[in-house]
Write a structure and sequence with these properties.
By secondary structure, the protein is of the alpha/beta class. It is about 25% helix and about 30% strand. It has helices at about 10-15, 60-70, 125-130, 135-150, and strands at about 20-30, 35-40, 50, 80-85, 95-105, 115-125, 155. InterPro entries: Nudix_hydrolase, NUDIX_hydrolase-like_dom_sf, NUDIX_hydrolase_CS, NUDIX_hydrolase_dom.
Length: about 160
């Protein structure tokens, strides 16, 4: 049997699926309220975090984004949620989001990046659900439950 021809790596990679990835952190204050941030460029509030840069792991991206957005060089706790979301009209690629436990933080330690964010708030879980995007509203209770139980949770297009 003759040997099979192998596809060159660049051709093989060009045919592979593409997706976006982001990482964020769930922070709470001493009263158990959750931290949400309001970027200039969105109508809704978000977890602290953002897109992974080329070559970054989700943990590295999360730590970088936390430092950039709220000025904390925080050690992250465990992975709480992995959420796979399908492409949309506005985002033609699938998105996988990693949410880590950011722990408890004193609001006085936060130094907001005014170039990217307008505001931050520590709010009740119920109040956060009125501020977050639809995806954020799906992730928040799951992330809090994962933090409570110590079990990483997986979401796929909104379903567990």
């Amino acid at each position: 049997m003759p040997p099979r021809e192998q596809t060159p790596p660049d051709e093989w990679l060009a045919g592979r699926p593409r997706f976006l990835a982001a990482a964020g952190a769930l922070f709470t204050d001493a009263e158990g309220r959750v931290l949400v941030v309001k970027p200039h460029y969105r109508d809704h509030w978000l977890f602290v975090g953002g897109q992974l840069d080329e070559g970054e792991t989700p943990e590295q991206a999360c730590r970088r984004e936390v430092k950039e957005e709220i000025g904390l060089d925080a050690a992250l706790g465990g992975l709480l949620v992995v959420d796979w979301t399908q492409p949309t009209r506005d985002r033609p690629l699938p998105l996988v989001v990693f949410i880590f436990d950011g722990g408890t933080v004193d609001p006085a330690r936060i130094r907001l990046d005014r170039d990217e964010l307008d505001e931050f708030r520590f709010v009740s879980v119920a109040a956060s659900l009125g501020l977050l995007s639809a995806n954020g509203r799906r992730r928040m209770p799951v992330a809090l439950d994962a933090k409570r139980t110590g079990t990483t949770r997986y979401l796929s297009a909104g379903a567990e």
